[in-house]
Amino acid sequence: FRMHRILTAEPSPLPFDPASTALVIIDMQRDFLEPGGFGESLGNDVSLLSAAVPPAKALLLAARAARLLVVHTREGHRPDLSDAPPSKLERGEPTARIGAPGPMGRILIRGEPGHDIIPELKPQDGEPVIDKPGKGAFYATELAEVLQARNIATLIVCGVTTEVCVHTTVREGNDRGYRCVVVGDACGSYIPEFHAAGLAMIKAQGGIFGWVSTSDDVIAALS
Ligand code: C5J
């Protein structure tokens, strides 16, 4: 018999068992959150993502205290770009494309300073870090195996950006049978109306591909 807890969420409360729940923190990398990285190279105001950092940090601390599996993801490519399709590489200004040199090293390349997770959310030993070449965290990664090995059934998802990598990952996870809860205030977007619409899309139609909650509600359910 396992103790189930109830998470306050929309469109409906969600029972969960901490032992089969993972916190998945998507792409909280310097390349997306700090000036000089991939996000800014695409013409974005990266300061729009900073509001997600304190809630994500609070979630991370609560998940560690509750002994949840914590998984971090990073979007990026091999230095030789062999895992980046031309269709992805050819976008953006030639001087600011994936692989081009920037103030934080080559843009979106594994091993470069910009590819690192921001210091506030630095992974601890024992927390899997999933390097992904795409927007979704399941595509071409070992995430499914990592979750299966721990019998995970519920994903609490936060990170950036709401409508791109968070959405793609949640859509992938939902189709694979995971209950996916997106923590709205711990997600961020360069385009505020896309953040709002992205959250609304998940929980519409009875929770068409997931649930939406808040960091306060998740922390309350874990404590
Ligand atoms: C983007 C991401 N926005 N992590 N990546 O290209 O959402």
From TrEMBL:
Coiled coil: none annotated. InterPro entries: Isochorismatase-like_dom, Isochorismatase-like_hydrls, Isochorismatase-like_sf. Residues 21-216 form the Isochorismatase-like domain. Gene3D superfamilies: Isochorismatase-like (3.40.50.850). Signal peptide: none annotated. Residues 77-105 are annotated as: Disordered. The keyword Hydrolase applies. Keywords: Hydrolase. Pfam families: Isochorismatase. This is Isochorismatase-like domain-containing protein.
